[in-house]
Amino acid sequence: MLSTGSLINYNGTYVSVEPFHLFRYLDEQCFRFNNRKLTDGERFSIAVSGIVGKRVMYNELIGKDETSQREQLP
Q: Which DSSP letter does residue 36 get?
């Protein structure tokens, strides 16, 4: 469920929200809310510890399959 606070953050933070990435925006807002009593530095440390050793390729990030792009090339 979206709260008023999430909608306010959306209007002030993001230019547009793509449906494909909506769960990511909501996850970010949940993370901020659940850790609201921590300092910015503490929140940053938690976030960085969750991404160590992970790799995201650009095509995966934007939701495009690399094999389908190759098939479309002339």
A: T
Q: What tokens does 49 get?
A: 């510890």
* Domain regions of the chain by residue span: 4-72
Contacts of 71 (CB under 8 A, 6+ apart): none
Residue 31: CB atoms within 10 A of its CB come to 14
pLDDT per residue rounded down to tens, the chain (74 residues):
455 555 555 556 667 778 888 888 889 889 889 999 999 999 899 988 988 888 888 888 888 766 555 555 55
CB 25 within 8 A of CB 35: no
pTM score of the predicted model: 0.49
